[in-house]
Amino acid sequence: MKKLSARRRHPLAALVVLLLALACTGGLYAAFAPAEKAQADDTAQSLAIDEGKKLYTVGCASCHGTGGQGGSDGPSLVGVGAAAVDFQVSTGRMPAATSQGAQVPKKKNIYTRAQIDQLAAYIASLGAGPAVPTKEQYGPEGADIAKGGELFRTNCAQCHNFTGKGGALTKGKFAPSLTDVEPKHIYEAMQTGPQNMPSFPDTTLSEQNKKDIIAYLNAVNGDETENPGGLELGGLGPVSEGLFGWIFGLGTLIAVAVWVAARTAKAKKS
Amino acid sequence: MSSQDIPEENLPAQQGHAHGAVDVADEKNPFADPGLPPHEHRIQDIDEEAAKRSERTVALLFTVSMLATIGFIVSYVAVPHDRSIYVFPIGHVSALNFALGVTLGLALFCIGAGAVHWARTLMSDVEVADERHPIEASPELRAKVHEDFRQGAKESALGRRKLIRNTMLGALTLVPLSGVMLLRDLGPLPGTSLRHTMWSKGKLLVNMNTNEPLRPEDVAVGSLTFAKPEGLEEHDEDFQKEIAKAALMIVRLQPENIKDKRELEWSHEGIVAYSKICTHVGCPISLYEQQTHHVLCPCHQSTFDLSDGARVIFGPAGHALPQLRIGVNDEGYLEALGDFEEPVGPAFWERG
C-alpha cells in the first residue's frame, strides 16, 4: 500500500488509473450487456403502454373512464385483453360515435396498425386477458372444414345464419354478416364476445375448434366459394328463396299474360 | 303496316249496325239487348302478305324451340358438370345448370309464344253467340228415372228381406273400423316420456363441442356453452330423441345480477343451466345476448330473461324455460342434481 501510495504522483499514475477504469467499465459492460438489452425491451413495451395510454386518454377515456375502469357510457376494460382491443378498433366499432342506439356498427378504422398495438398494449397492462391471435391460430392449415360446419351450426348459426349471412336480434340489435370479415377478427370475436355476442373461450371452444369454424366460413363464404345455383338472394334459406320465386316468378308470368291479352290484334286500334 | 296502307278493294263492307241484336226496348223490357259490337278485322284477315308473315313468325318460333331442345341435349352431353362461369347479373353459376336452364327455358317459351301468336293472328277470331239452354231434364225423362228407381228397389226386395238389409248395413258400418285400427301405428302413446329427460342426479354436463365434462372454471362470465348429459353419444340410436329433450344451454352470470331467488339457488357460482327447447313450439332457442341476458327464439321471437328465472318477456311462449339444478361433484365437475322439475318444450294437453 505504501508502495502504491508512494507512486501516486508518478507521471504515469493518471494513465494507469485511466486504463484500469476503462477495463473496469468494459468488463462491467460485457457482464451486464444482455440484461441491459432486456431492459431496453421492457422500455419499448412500457413506451408502447405510455403511447397507448395517451391514445386512450384522447379516444376512449370519455366513456371507459381514465383508467379503463368503465363508466355509465362504456364497460370496464380491465381484463378484456389485447384481442378485444384489436377487434373493436380494427373493425372501426370503437371509438363509437355514441353510446346510444341498439348496437355499435362496423365502420372505417381511423387508427394505424402501430397505434392499435399501442392501445392494445395499454389495455392488456390493465389486467390479464386474451392476446391477439397469431396466424397459426386462425390460418387454414390443419383445419377440419366438416367439423367446423358442425361446430358453427351448434354454436353460431342460431344468430349468424347457417352460412354466416347474419340475422336480426331483439330491439334493433343484429348479428352481423360474417362475409368479408377477416379470419383474425372472427377469432377475436369468438374469444372475447364483443357487445351482445356471448364469448366462446378456449375452455369451452378449443383453439382447434375456432380454427375449424373459420375454415368452414371460408369454405362457404370465401372469395373462391362456388355457388352453383347462381343468384343466391341473400342466402337466407329455402323459405325466403321459395317465397321470392313464388311472388316474383309467378308475378312476372301473370304480368306477361295480362300484357298479351291487353294488346289487341285488330287492324283498327281502338 | 297500318290499316291505311291496305288496298281499298280488300276491305270488307263496313257493317252499319251491330249484329245479333234480338231485342228492342219496349214497355216490358226497358233495356234493349245491344247485341255484339261490330266485328273488327285483323290485318292478317285482310292482307294475305301479313298473314304469310305471321305464319313465318310462328314457324320461326317453333324452329327456334327445336334448335333449343337440340342445344339442351348437346349441353347435357358436352358441358362438364364442374365448370363454373360468370354471368351478369347472376354471378358465378355452374355452366351446366345455366346451359340446361337457358335451352330448356327457350324451347318451352318458343312453343308457348308460337302458339299464342298463331291463335291471335291466324286462327278465326269471329265472335260467336251461343244460346244458353235450361239444364233441367224434361218431365217425361224425370218420370222415367223415378219409375226405374222404384222398380229396382222393388226387385232387390230390400224391404222384404230384412236379414240381408241388416247384415249389409252391419258390414258397411264395421269396414271403416279397420282404417281406424291402423291409426294405432302412429305409435304407442307417449306415456310419461314428455315429462322426463335423460338428466338425473349425478349426471355430468358434457360440452357439445369438445365432448368433455365441464368444470365451473371453464365457463366464463358472458360465455355461452351447450351441453348434453353424460353417456349420450352422437352415434347412439336414440341420440336425436334424447337430445331433443335434454339439450342444455349454459351461461354464467354475476351472481348479484340474478334476480330470481330459485334461479340463484339452482345455479353454481352464477352458472345457470336452462333447457334449450323453446316452450312455445319447441324450436332450439339460443340467440343469447350476453349484455341483456335475453334469449330470443328465432321462430316466433319469444324472448326470455335468463337473469330472472328465464321468464317470458316477449312473444307467444307460455312458460318460462325450465332450469336444471346443477352443482359440482367431488372431482370438481359440473353435475345435474336431478331432472328438470317441469316438462321441457312446448305445452301439451295433459301438461297442466
TrEMBL record, chain A:
It is found in: Cell membrane. It holds the Pfam family Cytochrome_CBB3. Its EC number is 7.1.1.8. Heme c 2 binds at C156, C159, H160. It is a multi-pass membrane protein. Binds 2 heme c groups covalently per subunit. SUPFAM superfamilies: Cytochrome c (SSF46626). Residues 47-127, 143-221 form the Cytochrome c domain. This is Cytochrome bc1 complex cytochrome c subunit. It comes from Streptomyces galbus.
UniProtKB/TrEMBL annotation, chain B:
This is Cytochrome bc1 complex Rieske iron-sulfur subunit. CDD domains: Rieske. GO terms for cellular component: plasma membrane. The chain crosses the membrane at residues 58-78, 98-119, 163-183. GO terms for molecular function: 2 iron, 2 sulfur cluster binding; metal ion binding; monooxygenase activity; oxidoreductase activity, acting on paired donors, with incorporation or reduction of molecular oxygen. Keywords: 2Fe-2S, Cell membrane, Disulfide bond, Electron transport, Iron, Iron-sulfur, Membrane, Metal-binding, Oxidoreductase, Respiratory chain, Transmembrane, Transmembrane helix, Transport. The cytochrome bc1 complex is composed of a cytochrome b (QcrB), the Rieske iron-sulfur protein (QcrA) and a diheme cytochrome c (QcrC) subunit. Residues 240-335 form the Rieske domain. It comes from Streptomyces galbus. Pfam families: QcrA_N, Rieske. It is found in: Cell membrane. Residues 1-40 are annotated as: Disordered. The lineage of its organism: Bacteria, Bacillati, Actinomycetota, Actinomycetes, Kitasatosporales. InterPro entries: QcrA_N, Rieske_2Fe-2S, Rieske_2Fe-2S_sf, Rieske_Fe-S_prot.
